[in-house]
């Protein structure tokens, strides 16, 4: 009987300790950080939020003040590289016209070394239903042509996306000697880079990426964006 009473007391003490710890955690737990706007910030925020415009950060869309022009682009990671995704609001006919002009410009660009010609190596149209093209070109007109750039363009839902990624093609016979010494630098990875582009363009689109969860993430950072805008306009 005494032993049973002792066990009950121990249990009650344990429950009491747990209860005290729980109450203490509720009272002293770290509070979530909150930020209160002052009167000037509230006034400017109300004014700015009256006429928002949709802006695109890479594949993300967000409502921002019309005068706000953010710097920097959304990046995606391809291997160990971080590559900027440039965006522009554009109708489809102007996009097609620009692609025609841009392709002509690349074709008319001459490499400084005649051995490296042509500057524009190949044109890879994106497979339907995607609208766009990948221009395989030299990195620059003054660099050897083993250094390439896959210059990709895609149009979707009124937005033009531009992504540029470096690649290499050292298969020319004039690189045979040096490629044996520096195989990594003078290798050939065009197919792999092109395939990564196609996966990227197929897996990411405006419908998928602007889901409610992504919008919540953007709202979470909206206060910081707003203050950055106010500071850039010398309102604060």
TrEMBL record:
Domain Tle cognate immunity protein 4 N-terminal intervals: 57-175
Organism: Escherichia coli
Membrane-traversing stretches: 12-28
Keyword Membrane: yes
Keywords, alphabetical: Membrane, Transmembrane, Transmembrane helix
InterPro entries: Tli4_N
Protein's recorded name: Tle cognate immunity protein 4 N-terminal domain-containing protein
Gene name in the database record: xmoJ
